[in-house]
């Protein structure tokens, strides 16, 4: 293994891994306390986790699960602003809340000082008149702030604010939302909204069983396709329409849903994150509990980001960082609402796969080949069936048809007893974990029998059976009753959605099988390098290359032999000590683009060249009005792969680490991958595999493979620097980092650092 990701830094040639130990003290957030050390934490973190519940940068490592049971299933509900005057918006909401309260067995109390009765129920003047303590207050008032204090006096734990006109409207609305959030924070009440709706109190089917989907949406309308899955027999347990998230946010509901035994998957529509760290902690909890999370996150494009901000008043975050964060913690990101519903439905109901292999079975060679192309391009594995298995299939399928995978039955066998034999034989193959049967169109009666055989076989196996019903009509009995009536067959309407969902299913189980939370190993205290590094920081300034390289040295990152000189004579002496050939570079704070100004000279091989180069660099600097702190005389390192490793402070997630192809390629190709701390060695290696130019590290055209281990260790050391200096380091750019041939390490040839 490489040097410790988070512990004391080690040299590349002397690897070590530091394991922190200790006990996490009990903590309380919004009234939910973790048990004392010695037992597991309420958040699922391990007993005896090291140090306090904050990392080295002061950010939380664990978050308790909010107790939302009484929000979704209250004993008593107060409706403030209740009405039964026809034509008023409050009347329709009140009517729906009364019906919902009856369904969940809650006692509902209308509150409105201007009425004696609402829909026949006695109406109270104030929440202080409640005959019992209510769990939930629904606020049908334009300004909920004045009511919050009354709710606190009545010891009401939860509230919902439907009112709009807050952060989604601009600066004045944002200020009003801040006042609401402050009022809620003072009282300890948990608030849903503002700018939310009735989706949390929708009518869920009670006749469905099996694992359920829990739904989170920041725009209520966008959750309707998932909610409609109930009409296809797929169970939904909760819907959290989070609105503007003045208090309760997506992360709170994700943590709660991931801890509910009935929830098989969480589906989310997200416009922006209130807090990136909170979302990562919630996703981490879901990964620990092996609960799949499928999300549409808008904001991939500039236009989408603008729309999201105007709708919710929140930052959308740099999309590359959002994508990396989701991938690191196993959140499955999809683009469309149709993908959201199909993928969530499959993940909620499918069992753990026994193998990653996918078998494609169809009645047409063309259909099978088409689907196989799409599946393979998406990264699914279609293993060639063994010769023995092919011989077995040819008992029922003509010899001239291909049965290697995809399997083409030719059509006729599905109409009699042979159809079920073929399906059972495929499911019996140990290399196959998923059987997919695309049916491009109905062809009764054979399609009816094929559908029934697939349903019957699915009931007898632990393996996943998927059907793509391609008919545009969708009213056929084989589809509406046979396939949709099965709790074991996953039915899709498009090839693309089937491939997306199956890929997500297999990837989720691979991810969670080996998941270890990076928060368990995140550093709680600064590394020994931090003190040296902090002495180099200059608040609000960009460091010179020389100072930036000193920062790298403090974290054990190798830089070339070099000296900073202030005269031509000193440059000649330095060159003899560094060793020819040398590179000479002007060094000054705020000097970012030296090459464009002619302030870099390479391949100098003699004292006369060094003297001339020094004078030329000094003349250019004077002409450009640049005050140098000296000229660097550097060892010239030529042989290797140029990479870039850097740190950026993201507005939502804090410090992030980037790695990619370096030199001029970083600007031309923009081939980079992002890691969101904390992460370990596995994630660092995965970042390299995500690069389109990863093959350069393997060696091309006879070149030697690069020292990937050394590159990974630089990424991890840069991450540690980012965590130690999160409040002081705004940006770091090591470009190029020359990765030498395997076993020879990596050298930071240039560096730029900007302080907060």
TrEMBL record:
Ranges of biased composition (kind: Low complexity): 33-52
The keyword Zinc-finger belongs to this UniProt entry's keyword annotation: no
Q: Which InterPro entries match?
A: ATP-grasp (IPR011761), ATP_grasp_subdomain_1 (IPR013815), CoA-bd (IPR003781), NAD(P)-bd_dom_sf (IPR036291), Succ_CoA_lig_flav_dom (IPR032875), Succinyl-CoA_synth-like (IPR016102)
Keywords for this protein:
ATP-binding, Nucleotide-binding
**The keyword RNA-binding belongs to this UniProt entry's keyword annotation:** no
The positions making up the signal sequence are none
Xref: SUPFAM superfamilies: Glutathione synthetase ATP-binding domain-like, NAD(P)-binding Rossmann-fold domains, Succinyl-CoA synthetase domains
Name used for this protein in its record:
CoA-binding protein
- Give the organism the record lists: Streptomyces paromomycinus (Streptomyces rimosus subsp. paromomycinus)
């Amino acid at each position: 293994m490489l040097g410790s990701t988070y512990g004391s830094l080690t040299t590349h040639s002397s690897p070590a891994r530091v394991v922190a130990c200790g006990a996490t003290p009990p903590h309380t957030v919004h009234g939910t306390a973790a048990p004392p050390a010695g037992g597991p934490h309420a958040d699922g973190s391990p007993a005896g986790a090291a140090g306090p519940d904050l990392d080295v940068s002061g950010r939380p490592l664990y978050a308790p699960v909010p107790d939302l049971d009484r929000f979704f299933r209250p004993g008593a509900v107060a409706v403030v602003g209740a009405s039964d005057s026809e034509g008023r918006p409050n009347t329709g909401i009140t009517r729906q809340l009364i019906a919902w309260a009856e369904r969940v067995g809650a006692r509902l109390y209308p509150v409105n000082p201007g009425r004696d009765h609402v829909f026949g129920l006695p109406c109270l003047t104030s929440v202080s008149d409640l005959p019992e303590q209510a769990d939930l207050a629904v606020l049908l008032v334009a300004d909920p702030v004045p009511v919050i204090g009354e709710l606190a006096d009545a010891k009401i734990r939860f509230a919902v604010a439907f009112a709009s006109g807050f952060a989604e409207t601009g600066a004045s609305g944002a200020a009003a939302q801040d006042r609401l959030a402050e009022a809620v924070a003072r009282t300890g009440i948990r608030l849903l909204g503002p700018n939310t709706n009735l989706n949390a109190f929708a009518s869920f089917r009670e006749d469905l069983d099996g694992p359920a989907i829990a739904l989170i949406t920041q725009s209520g309308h966008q959750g309707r396709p998932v909610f409609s899955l109930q009409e296809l027999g797929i169970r939904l347990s909760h819907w959290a329409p989070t609105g503007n998230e003045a208090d309760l946010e997506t992360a709170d509901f994700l943590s709660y849903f991931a801890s509910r035994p009935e929830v098989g998957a969480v589906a989310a529509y997200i416009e922006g994150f209130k807090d990136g760290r909170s979302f990562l902690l919630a996703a981490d909890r879901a990964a620990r509990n092996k609960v799949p999370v499928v999300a549409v996150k808008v904001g991939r494009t500039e236009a989408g980001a603008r729309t999201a901000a105007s709708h919710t008043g929140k930052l959308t975050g740099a999309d590359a960082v959002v994508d990396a964060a989701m991938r690191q913690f196993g959140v499955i990101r999809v683009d469309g609402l149709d993908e959201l519903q199909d993928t969530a439905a499959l993940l909620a109901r499918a069992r753990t796969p026994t193998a990653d292999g996918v078998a494609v079975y169809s009645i047409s060679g063309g259909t099978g080949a088409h689907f196989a192309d799409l599946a393979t391009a998406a990264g699914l594995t279609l293993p060639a069936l063994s010769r023995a298995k092919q011989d077995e299939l040819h008992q029922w399928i003509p010899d001239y048809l291909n049965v290697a995978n995809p399997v083409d039955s030719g059509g006729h066998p599905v109409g009699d007893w042979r159809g079920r034999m073929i399906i059972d034989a495929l499911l019996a193959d140990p290399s196959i974990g998923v059987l997919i049967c695309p049916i491009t169109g109905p062809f009764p009666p054979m399609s009816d029998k094929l559908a029934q055989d697939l349903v019957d076989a699915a009931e007898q196996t632990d393996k996943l059976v998927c059907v793509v019903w391609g008919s545009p009509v969708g009213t056929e009995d084989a589809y509406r009753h046979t396939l949709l009536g099965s709790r074991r067959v996953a039915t899709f309407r498009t090839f693309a959605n089937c491939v997306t969902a199956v890929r997500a299913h297999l990837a989720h189980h691979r991810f969670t099988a080996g998941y270890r939370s990076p928060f368990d190993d995140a550093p709680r205290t600064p590394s020994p390098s931090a003190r040296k590094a902090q002495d180099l920081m200059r608040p609000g300034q960009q460091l010179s290359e020389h100072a930036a390289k000193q920062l790298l040295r403090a974290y054990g990152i190798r830089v070339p032999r070099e000296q900073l000189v202030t005269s031509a004579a000193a440059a000649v002496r330095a060159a003899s000590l560094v060793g020819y050939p040398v590179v000479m570079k002007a060094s000054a704070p705020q000097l970012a683009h030296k090459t464009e100004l002619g302030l870099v000279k390479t391949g100098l091989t003699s004292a006369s060249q060094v003297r001339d180069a020094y004078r030329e660099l000094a003349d250019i600097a004077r002409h450009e009005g640049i005050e140098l702190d000296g000229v660097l005389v550097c060892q010239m390192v030529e042989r290797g792969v140029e990479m870039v490793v850097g740190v950026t402070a993201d507005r939502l997630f804090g410090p992030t680490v980037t790695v990619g192809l370096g030199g001029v390629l970083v600007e031309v190709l923009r081939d980079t991958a992002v890691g969101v701390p904390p992460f370990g060695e596995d994630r660092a290696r995965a970042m390299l595999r995500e690069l389109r130019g990863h093959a350069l590290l393997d060696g091309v055209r006879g070149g030697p493979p690069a020292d990937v281990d050394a590159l990974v260790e630089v990424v991890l050391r840069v991450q540690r620097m980012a965590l130690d200096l999160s409040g002081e380091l705004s940006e770091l750019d090591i470009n190029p980092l020359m990765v030498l041939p395997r076993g020879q390490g990596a050298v930071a040839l240039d560096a730029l650092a900007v302080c907060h």
